[in-house]
Design brief:
about 90 residues; elongated; mainly alpha; single chain; about 0% strand
């Protein structure tokens, strides 16, 4: 059962990152591209981390949790900083 859930999380992460990449390529403005990229990282990579958490030992689980927390904290901050810089330079 854990293996099935892990495989489903990997598929979910792959689809999320693929759709996020398509969103970055097709979005008309920097703000919508930034939104697509930040959602792809948050949802896609965290689902990969959950899959690794289910299929690993305790040493790897600690690292995976730290990686997921780091991404969940830094991705919105980085997106905000990039959007603010784009706004201040007059990008549309």
């Amino acid at each position: 059962m854990r293996e099935l859930i892990s495989h489903m999380l990997i598929i979910l992460g792959t689809l999320t990152i693929t759709l996020g990449t398509i969103g970055v390529l097709r979005a008309p403005s920097i703000y919508t591209r930034l939104h697509a990229a930040s959602k792809a990282v948050s949802l896609g990579v965290v689902s990969f981390c959950l899959a690794a958490f289910l299929d690993s030992g305790s040493e790897v689980r600690t690292r995976v949790v730290l990686i997921a927390l780091f991404l969940l904290i830094t991705t919105p901050v980085a997106s905000h900083v990039i959007a603010r810089a784009a706004y201040q330079t007059g990008e549309d």
